[in-house]
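Possible regression after last week's pipeline update?

I re-ran a chain I had predicted before the update to compare outputs. Posting the input and the new output here so someone can diff against the archived version. Not blocking, just want to make sure nothing changed silently.
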Amino acid sequence: MVCWARSSVQFTSGPFAEVNDLEFMYVFNAGGTLTESSNYDGAPPVPPAYGVWHSIGPNEFEARYEYFTTAPLANVEALTSEEAGMVSRPWLKLMRLLQRVQTLKDWK
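New output (post-update):
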């Protein structure tokens, strides 16, 4: 069984705090994995988030997921420098989120 959900999100701090129309779309897989995407995945380019979810009570779930985000490069040469090697990518950051989700009682 696969379920999906869509939600509006408002952060109070961090890089998305000024975004007022952020929406997330989730796919919850029966095995406890999830995929998340947002209407801001293209700015800057951000791939979907991947994670896990589990029930914490009636109609309540906890989701933990991660995604990569990019920071602007100082210049194009940064892509070919030693810093851009496989070990170090200063413009690439791993973001982690913990979210509690409450559904409607008749949600399926």
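Follow-up from reviewer: compared with the archived run. The radius of gyration is 17 Å. Marking as no regression found.
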